[in-house]
């Protein structure tokens, strides 16, 4: 199964786990499996229109999925998917 | 006439000068460089210390803030004696003792859309060690408009991010900038700040020294700057990843500075519903007059142990599972650290039919300031 690395700010919505094994043959189905396992993650990742929020980047390996085939990017059993949020540090 | 070095400088920088790839040419480029460090806090402290030590000829420091006790766990430029003093001015005094051969300019002001271009224009490289999204977008946009390199670092709890934005490589190709990576900021409150979410004190030390190293690489031209790549460091697992950042063809050209508080604030998000509040002074009166009410602390147990004003501890994420603990036949006051989380809980409970709720305005911090000065503010 492919693996999704959960960034620290979102881990509280995923039982504080750093990585989650997911089923699926492309990025979208993998993330849908993730939010099925952890429903609280859904509104953190998707906007009201069902699109991935613009302050979150999704990577397959080292590549931004926007440089591949977006949510339709195919994944394999050894794919590592990263969710990368913007962080600012310090004050709010 | 090329830049020269005194005997004292040559001796000071000798460990640089004997590196074949660096040598006196690298040191000369450092001495001729002007670097602006935006923020002299957790990231800015190591960046400033190492750039000053390394011999960057002119260093600007932008910071409007004063040193606070809670800064000393990570902002290693400052000491107990500096609490309450200007960070930028204190940093200059400290750094002049470290390296008397270089110049400093203090910008003891908040960076804004009105002053950013004027401040940035005299510098070659900008190091972004700021602590909020509004200033990060401002720094980025000013760098794009003025054609400056933006050496970026950011931290949260145990995680760090690092990149070099708007860098033109030796072949003349310009790399991506911050908006290519994150076109828009998260809504306020979604990503906890260091004040709410915390940061490991060592983390900005590690990420900030890497940031200083990238500044030095950009100035001297040695190595491959972290342009077009995003370095991620999870210090808990010691996992590092370097991701590719591409220039996004959909990124709108940056032609002018905007209202960044609006851009990053409530301007593009729905305003949250106001909640009924009680002040710390009013709450004290309720306590003193033995008024019947329930006090609920929605923070985490480890926060309760730092400081509390009593009441029932029901952490925010357990509220809905413990509704039977919440009184319906008397007033209920909710509190947290600063009033944000308890306001969220109040809205959740109000939607479930609770009409007897008050939010402690300003949270326990307000209680510490107005009622109990002996209470630790965290």
Helix share bin of chain A: 10-25%
Number of helices of chain A: 2
Can you tell me the CATH topology of chain A?
Ubiquitin-like (UB roll)
* Tally of DSSP helical segments of chain B: 15
What structural class should be given to the helix and strand makeup of chain A? Answer: alpha+beta
Name of the level-1 CATH class of chain A: Alpha Beta
The strands making up the biggest β-sheet of chain A line up spatially as 2-1-5-3-4
Beta-strand level of the residues of chain A, as a percent range? 15-25%
CATH topology of the largest domain in chain B: Rossmann fold
The fourth-level CATH homologous superfamily of the largest domain in chain B is NAD(P)-binding Rossmann-like Domain
Total strand segments of chain B? 13
Sheet of most strands of chain A: 5 strands, mixed
CATH architecture of the largest domain in chain B: 3-Layer(aba) Sandwich
Unreliable stretches covering 5 or more consecutive residues of chain A: none
**Whole-angstrom Rg of chain B:** 24 Å
Mean pLDDT of chain A: 91
Class by SSE composition of chain B: alpha/beta
Regions with little confidence, pLDDT below 50 for 5+ residues of chain B: none
The main sheet of chain B orders its strands as 3-2-1-4-5-6-7-8
Average predicted local confidence, pLDDT of chain B: 93
Biggest sheet layout of chain B: 8 strands, mixed
């Amino acid at each position: 199964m492919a693996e999704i690395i959960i960034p620290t700010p979102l881990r509280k919505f995923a039982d504080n786990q750093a990585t989650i094994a997911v089923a699926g043959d492309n990025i979208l189905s993998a993330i849908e499996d993730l939010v099925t396992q952890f429903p609280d993650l859904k509104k953190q990742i998707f906007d009201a229109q069902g699109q991935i929020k613009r302050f979150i980047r999704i990577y397959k390996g080292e590549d931004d999925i926007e440089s591949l085939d977006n949510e339709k990017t195919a994944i394999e059993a050894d794919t590592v998917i990263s969710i990368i949020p913007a962080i600012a540090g310090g004050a709010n | 006439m090329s830049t020269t070095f005194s005997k004292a400088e040559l001796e000071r920088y000798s460990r640089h000068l004997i590196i074949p790839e660096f040598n006196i040419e690298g040191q000369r480029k450092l001495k001729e460089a002007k670097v602006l460090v935006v923020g002299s806090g957790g990231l800015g402290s190591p960046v400033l210390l190492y750039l000053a030590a390394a011999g960057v000829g002119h260093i600007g420091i932008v910071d409007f803030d004063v040193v606070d006790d809670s800064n000393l766990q990570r902002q290693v430029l400052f000491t107990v004696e500096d609490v309450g003093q200007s960070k930028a001015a204190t940093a200059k005094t400290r750094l002049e003792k470290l390296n008397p051969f270089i110049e400093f300019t203090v910008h003891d002001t908040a960076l804004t859309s009105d002053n950013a271009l004027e401040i940035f224009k005299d510098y070659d490289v900008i190091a972004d060690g700021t602590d909020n999204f509004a200033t990060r977008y401002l720094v980025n946009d000013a760098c794009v408009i003025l054609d400056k390199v933006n050496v970026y670092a950011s931290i949260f709890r145990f995680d760090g991010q690092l990149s070099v934005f708007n860098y033109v490589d030796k072949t003349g190709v310009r790399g991506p900038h911050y908006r290519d990576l994150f076109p828009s900021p998260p809504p306020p409150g979604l990503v906890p700040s260091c004040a709410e979410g915390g940061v490991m004190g060592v983390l900005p030390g590690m990420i900030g020294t890497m940031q200083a190293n990238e500044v030095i690489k950009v100035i001297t031209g040695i190595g491959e700057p972290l342009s077009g790549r995003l370095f991620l460091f999870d210090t808990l697992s010691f996992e590092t990843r370097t991701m590719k950042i591409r220039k996004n063809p959909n990124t709108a050209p940056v032609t002018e500075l905007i209202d960044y508080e609006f851009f990053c604030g409530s301007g593009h998000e729905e305003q949250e519903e106001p909640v009924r509040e009680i002040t710390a002074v009013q709450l004290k009166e309720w306590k003193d007059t033995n008024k019947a009410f329930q006090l609920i602390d929605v923070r985490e147990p480890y926060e309760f142990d730092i400081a509390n004003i009593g009441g029932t501890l029901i952490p925010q994420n357990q509220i809905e599972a413990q509704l039977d603990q919440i009184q319906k036949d008397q007033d209920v006051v909710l509190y947290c650290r600063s009033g944000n989380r308890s306001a969220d809980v109040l809205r959740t409970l109000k939607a479930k039919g609770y009409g007897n709720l008050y939010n402690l305005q300003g949270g326990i911090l307000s209680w510490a300031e107005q009622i109990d000065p002996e209470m630790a503010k965290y």
